[in-house]
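Database export, one record per block. Field names are fixed; values are copied verbatim from the stored entry.
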Amino acid sequence: MCGRYVMSKAPGDLLSAFEAKEVEGNPPPPSWNVAPTQAVPIVAERLDEGAIDRHLLVAHHPP
């Protein structure tokens, strides 16, 4: 099993869907063939003074 998957949403769509405030980094565009070593957008969430704070980050697994 190769571990590839589909990332069909654009960064702007993810910001809207998860009500995230900003993008940190340079997220890649949607792809139908994301490999395990490629950068992908993730939504990070934390509780800040009783309010949920979400940001779109770029993460990747080192080769």
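Remark 1: Helices lie at 11-18.
Remark 2: The CA atoms of residues 4 and 38 lie 10 Å apart.
End of record.
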